Amino acid sequence: MRTAPGGYPHPMATEDDYTAQPFVPTRGGLPALRKAAADCHGCPLHRAATQTVFGAGKASARVMLVGEQPGDQEDRQGKPFVGPAGHLLDRALAEAGLDPADAYVTNAVKHFKFTQAEPRKRRIHKAPTLRETAACGPWLAAELDRVEPELIVVLGATAGKALLGSSFRVTQVRGTVLEEEIHGRPERLVPTVHPSAVLRAEDRDAAYRGLLSDLKVAVRALG
What we know:
By secondary structure, this protein is α/β, with parallel strands linked by helices. The chain has helices at residues 30-37, 72-77, 84-96, 130-135, 137-147, 157-164, 170-173, 195-200, 204-222; strands at 3-4, 8-9, 63-67, 103-107, 114-115, 124-125, 151-155, 178-182, 185-192. The strands form three sheets. The chain has a five-stranded mixed β-sheet. The protein has a two-stranded antiparallel ribbon with strand order 1-2. It has a two-stranded antiparallel sheet with strand order 5-6.
């Protein structure tokens, strides 16, 4: 890790290294992480994004929800899950019996990746690459270290690959309780689809019921 004294990023750290590690402070809680993440240049995604969108919630949260990356509204507001998919997730969490205020929510990638045909046109979400996801991994590891959740809800394929490796397939394990070692710490995880997949589904009601069923498994696992 190339850091200066006190755990702050070494001035030689560049986006070409494709790792956020030099930008992650070695001390401090979530506020320190959030402040440091605002200046992260660990990969080229920071260039086009409006701002870093760090996780939100209490350090004492029992459950951590991990999605893919910020969307258009999240990028503009600087908060995770505040767009249409976030509203749907809040509704499903409440219906499953988990107060959204009791969860810590974050994304595997902290900057919005998009394509745009021309200025002022709508920005279209573009999935991050494995390299970009891996570059952002140190932030997710630091969040897990600070929050120490009892359970991780994995929202979609990108989050699953970030936590469990490139062979992860959400359709194979959704709605089950997995026990894995993540960043040197034993974790329990419940994978499910990303709420944006529900919004894109042809049968949205059926897709929502599937998400809700998986979240109920998570609530039962919490006890």
